[in-house]
Amino acid sequence: MNYFLQLHRLSMRFDSLLEEWGVSVLALALRIFVAWQFLKAGWIKLADWESTLSLFREEYMVPLLSPELAAVMGAGGELFFPLLLIVGVFSRPAALGLFAVNAMAVISYPQLWQFECPAAINDHFYWGLLLLVLIMVGPGRFSVDQRIKNMDRLAN
Fold first, then answer.
1. Which residues cross the membrane (predicted)?
2. pTM of the prediction?
3. pLDDT means per 10 residues in the chain (156 residues)?
């Protein structure tokens, strides 16, 4: 039993270090990766706005919104929320906003479910999962949110 406890203690030796720094490094990598996926999509929409409007009028079936408003909101969300996420300010609301943009893309583009290659729909599932992880664990140490939290803690 003593040997087991020593072995267990050894396996747990770096847990606090990993929890403190490893999660922050992972959160930073996730923030940059997911944000980059949406930034690229938003930039493409902005670069060819007429094609974007055409897509929203003819392909995407966004409920409740006009195609023009949906295009502005979709591209705006793809460009605004990733910037917040990369910097790490209002990170959880930004991740939640991107999650909503991602969910709306899946809902409004039913052809995603019918492609022979499931990569497109799977990408949306992966991004949604990564955004949920960021919502749950937060942005980590390498973020403006953490700096503000530390400054607030020192002030009070």
1. 21-39, 69-87, 94-113, 125-144
2. 0.86
3. 89 86 95 97 95 92 90 96 98 97 90 78 93 96 95 91
